[in-house]
Design goal:
This protein is mainly alpha-helical and about 140 residues long. Helix content is about 40%, strand content about 5%.
Length: about 140
Amino acid sequence: MLNDQEIERLRQAILATVASPIIGSIEDYTWEAIFHYIKNIPVSDPALGRTKLLYDAVNLTTKTGWSLKSLQINNMRRGNTFWFVIQRADIIKKAVQLGFQDLTEQSLPQQLGAAIIQHWNEKILTRSIYSVNLNSFTRTN
């Protein structure tokens, strides 16, 4: 059961989540992050124990990569500023579907970037078609 403070934190987290044009639904890691926020539990690194080939930021000297979307918001109070980072698209698995038949992890950054843009353009267009008849979320007092 949630206490009054946790219920308020849940309300704040849901409002922040649905207000984001980037987050399509509250599920998986999004829900996990909300629950951790509600209970004031530190969020574990989602990349622990996983390997990946593409990163948002790379230190060229140490060859260490980070996923910028794993940065967490420590304070979601009204008036605070925070950034959203678009989630990574699995463009290698979807290469043919996106029109990039020869795309690999070794492709030029320009090709990888073009595939990412194509992926997100398709996703945004698809979502806009499905959301034509939906009301946007608004808060009334």
